Amino acid sequence: MWEQRYVVSGILVSFHPSSHLEMAEPKPSFNSLEFYKLRNGYFLCYTTFGPADGRPVFFLHGFPGSRLEGAAWQEVAMQLNVRLIVPDRPGIGFSSFQKGRRIIDWPYTLLELAEHLSIERFHLLATSGGCPYALACLKTIPRERLLGTSVVSGSFPLSLGAEDMLLMSRVMLFIAAWFPWIMSLMLDILVRRPSRAKDQTGFERMFMKDVERWPVVDQECYVDENFKAWLLRNIAEAVTLQTYGSAWEARLLGSDWDFGLDEILSPRVTVWQGTFDRNCPVTMAERAVKKMAGAQLIILDEGHLSLPAKHKHAILENLLKTA
């Protein structure tokens, strides 16, 4: 059975899904979840991957997802000497829910975490639903601090035209935008309860049924049992404490953003998109890039998941060249 480790005030806490919290003697813990109390009193939780002295890159996870998404990037982070810092956004995983939070609030939260970690200059890497938060950072954080940003399989405003998006994805975002409490209930029934059951076969079977609607290149990723197990755990972790945080996240994705893409005047962003992506269609990425002066678009014959799964090294290596 898998185990997670957390560091709270120097005490190592081990957590097993079927057990209570256990306190252990303080000792170094690899990839431990750490808690930082923000100035507003809320807690932000994050995990680091890669060497502690590596070049800092903040990783913004997708939706539905959590800090555990960073685990898939650990090997390449080690190869490229990158310190990957992956926070759970507010209301996700173990980060405190913040009522009424907006996308545009995120850059200030990220800067506070960077200050806590004594990081002056850094890069950003975002996947899927992490895209709007990365772009908000590009709009807000000074160039001398935010050196460059890469968005992979990014989610863009629905106002750009979502005709190529999977119908189910559009429906879910519509529900979340207008009725987040319904979205929260759906996540509880479809994800949280099945993922916490002693028998996980039901959760896996339901998830794989949804995968059947995805492009073949994405379905092929699930042949790897380790990939499947990692993704299921990452999704389940997003709603480990409650579901309304993820529902609110979906509401933000499906609503008008707090800023216009034409406000982002930066050549420091590279957008990686797959031609077969039905969750975040390449047509939306093309329209988005046209609005962002200086942005670069790289299109590969991949899907939503297969693109980051197969091209991590190239993506991260390209990002580090931006300064």
Describe it.
The chain contains eleven helices and eleven strands. The N terminus is likely disordered. 41% of the residues are buried. Helix content is 37%, strand content 19%. The longest helix is centred in the middle third of the chain and has 17 residues. It has one domain: Alpha/Beta hydrolase fold, catalytic domain (Rossmann fold), CATH 3.40.50.1820. Helix 2 crosses helix 3 and helix 5 crosses helix 8. It has an eleven-stranded mixed sheet, sandwiched between helices. The radius of gyration is 18 Å and the shape is globular. With 323 residues, the chain is of the alpha/beta class.
Question: Would you report the number of β strands?
Answer: 11
From the 3D structure, determine the CATH topology: Rossmann fold
- The value of Rg in angstroms is 18 Å
Helical run tally: 11
- Estimate percent helicity: 25-40%
| Outline type | globular
CATH superfamily label: Alpha/Beta hydrolase fold, catalytic domain
Mean pLDDT: 87
Secondary-structure class: alpha/beta
Order of helices and strands: EEEEEEHEHEHEHHHHHHEHEH
> Low-confidence parts lasting 5 or more residues at pLDDT below 50?
1-30
Q: What percentage of amino acids are in beta strands?
A: 15-25%
Task: Supply the CATH class.
Answer: Alpha Beta
